[in-house]
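# nightly structure sweep
# worker-07 picked up a monomer target from the shared queue
# config: single-sequence mode, recycle default, output format = structure tokens
# input follows
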Amino acid sequence: MPRSVNSVASRARRKKILKRTRGNFLSRKNVWTVAKNTYEKGLTYAYRDRKNKKRNFRALWIQRINAAARQYGISYSQFMGKLGAQNIGLNRKVLADLAMNNPQAFEAIINSVK
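# output follows
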């Protein structure tokens, strides 16, 4: 009995990965084994960097809050400590946005915790 292979499904599986590696450099886009490894490595990077993105944004917000708070003579750690003590429930994302786009509101928050 001859060996049966599902070439339609195999070709479709390869085409799917080659389509997703389109735009890569040299053989990374059209050589099956290289493209498959590139694609899998890219998925690994994407998973890792979805986590790192959250980390990077939090660090950016902290830097912005610190820079804005120091203009009013208070450090970031003192400012966040006083916010917590007074039960002001603004997160770092909102505070950084206020510091950048609405300095009057940020100054009012600073004055309320001093």
